[in-house]
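Quick one, tokens below. Sequence please?
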């Protein structure tokens, strides 16, 4: 049902959402050094890559959470 609702919802131009984070000067300095040395094209590229890496790192835990949340409790009437 959620898939059908998302299919009906109009897509935005970028299909992404803007967030704000606070980083300390030291962390931001490290990010800027990596960008300056050409490892990433900009700060946003670094942050997106870091988030994707963390999501991939914890993929099993996320999958297990989805399984736990979809567990039906109680009696389900026969069709």
């Amino acid at each position: 049902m959620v898939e059908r609702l998302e299919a009906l919802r109009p897509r935005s131009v970028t299909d992404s959402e803007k967030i704000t984070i606070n980083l300390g000067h030291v962390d931001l300095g490290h990010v800027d050094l990596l960008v300056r040395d050409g490892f990433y094209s900009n700060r946003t590229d670094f942050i997106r890559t870091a988030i994707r890496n963390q999501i991939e790192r914890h993929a099993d835990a996320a999958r297990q959470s989805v399984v736990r949340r979809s567990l039906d409790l109680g009696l389900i009437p026969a069709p």
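The chain has a mean pLDDT of 82. The helical segments are 2-8, 25-36, 43-57, 59-69.
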